[in-house]
Specification:
Arc Repressor Mutant, subunit A, two-stranded parallel sheet, 7 helices, 6 strands
Length: 192
């Protein structure tokens, strides 16, 4: 197995983690409430990773993540990702997410349709939930139907999609009310 390294770094939202291999970035870990919890999550998922000085590729990713979380618009196109363990469909979803302009969102259904798999919205949602490259691949720009952005980030972290989108100038719907969940609003009827 190729050796993996990791580093913890400061951002505007707390101390994030990044894990890499000789091929590229393996994962990004958003901050937990405490740094020790961020480190525990990294060890739980990547027990073979050792804390090291980041190579240039990881430094580029860190610089971009720090900039993004300060409201910037970084370009991650030069950052190599290690997609060795990522299923092909997930890679396609991540490529589609990367094509969404800053400040805009798409729904799971819109991504599925763009990939030529219009009935695969659930599969898109699963891929987004398993995105190991948080922030580098902007999965926060892909929302459920209705543009609801309440969920916390997958794999830990205390930041919500809504907060990330607000940094980018997007304004998704706050949340479903209990009324909307129990009694969905029917589309208006055409007048005759």
């Amino acid at each position: 197995m190729v050796g993996r390294g990791y580093a913890i770094f400061n951002t505007a939202i707390g101390r994030c983690g990044i894990i890499w291999s000789s091929t590229g970035v393996v994962a990004v870990q958003l901050p937990e409430a405490r740094e020790i919890d961020t480190r525990r999550r990294i060890f739980a998922v990547h027990p073979e990773a050792r804390e090291q000085q980041p190579p240039l590729n990881a430094e580029l990713a860190i610089e971009g993540i720090v900039g993004l979380l300060q409201g910037g618009d970084p370009d991650f196109s030069e950052v190599s990702l290690d997609a060795g363990g990522v299923p092909g469909f997930h890679r396609r979803v991540y490529e589609a997410a990367c094509a969404i302009p800053r400040g805009e969102t798409r729904t799971y259904h819109e991504i599925a349709k763009a990939l030529g798999a219009s009935g695969a919205a659930h599969s898109v949602a699963q891929a987004i939930a398993k995105n190991p490259y948080m922030l580098i691949v902007p999965c926060h720009r892909v929302l459920e139907a209705g543009n609801y952005a309440d969920r916390l980030s997958p794999d830990g972290g205390v930041i919500s999609k809504r907060r990330l989108l607000a940094l980018e100038g997007a304004h998704p719907v706050a949340s479903k009310t209990l009324f909307e969940v129990l009694l969905p609003v029917a589309p208006p009827r055409p007048s005759s």
